[in-house]
Model the fold of this input.
Amino acid sequence: MVRVYIGGCLFFLAAICPGVHFQRNDSSAQAVSHSELTFEAHIEQPVLQPSEAAPPIGTYMLKSPAGKPCIKVTMGAEYIVLEKKRSWYFNLEPSRVMSSGYCGEDAAVLCLTLLGNAARLQFTFRKEKDIFFVTNLTARVSPLPVCQGCANKTYSGSVAHDKLFAAADGQSFKCKSENVLLTSSELRIKLVPLQMQAFSVPKGQYGKEVECWADFNKWVIAISIGAIVVTFFLIVVLTFLFIRDHHRHSYDRL
Done:
């Protein structure tokens, strides 16, 4: 990760991510006003890697100006860039991310940004009746060039979905399986694992978990395989007993 120290960078972040306040990425973070932000900041320019590694897991919580938790997300996030006909990887490091956004009654935004906007991941939440979900995910990364002589390039894209990662109000969406989202022809976002809750996050704790289809299908497949194995074992045992009993009756007749 290449760092270039600058001043006033956080005001730039305020302009690109809609929101009313910035917060640190830990459960004790409190809402702060723009006037309280320090001028010491630095740009984190991502370095794309040729091989994939499991992304570090971070928990991001956004609170209202009154200090009430309204969004909580726990996940590992990986950018997958297609360049020079091959895939390159960059993992979002939670300790280097600034959280911002806003919380409304039925709309909310969580924006995760490396200082200087070298990488950004933004979730737009909506609530309809008693269901919350993500309506839009946007991603952007401006890494160092992957080769000498290559030009600087920014990769960006978005995913618009009717009801992505949906769960009932007061509950949390959880998925241990990989969620790979195609934001553009050159950029994919992998979220693994993923747990999120929006609008109602009592005491900053996750509510009842709503399992994703991928995890549910894995569980069903495991149960089905187990049932097949047990059935096969019973067939073998019953066949053995039948043959043994048949031979015994044959000896008795003799």
User: Anything to note?
Assistant: The two ends are 86 Å apart (CA to CA). The CA atoms of residues 131 and 168 lie 4 Å apart. Confidence is low (pLDDT under 50) at residues 4-13, 27-41.
